[in-house]
Amino acid sequence: MAGDDKGGSPADWEVATRLVRGGTARSQFGETAEALFLTQSYVYDSAEGANARFAGEDPGFIYTRYGNPTVKMFEDRLALLEGAQACRAQASGMASIHLALMGLLKAGDHVVAGRCLFGSCRWILNTWAPRFGIETTFVDAPDVDAWRQAVRPNTKVFLIESPANPLLEITDIAAVSAIAHEAGAKVIVDNVFATPILQKPFQLGADVVVYSATKHIDGQGRVMGGAILGDTALIDEAYRDPIRHTGPALSPFNAWVLLNGLVTLDLRVRAQSKTAADLADRIAGSQKIKALRYPGRPDHPQYEVARRQMTGGTNEMIGGGTLIAFDLGDQAAAFRFLNALELVDISNNLGDAKSMATHPTTTTHRAMTEEQRLEIGLTPGWVRVSVGLEGAHDLARDLERALDAA
Ligand SMILES: *Cc1c(COP(=O)(O)O)cnc(C)c1O
Question: What is the mean pLDDT of residues 362-385?
Answer without folding.
Answer: 93
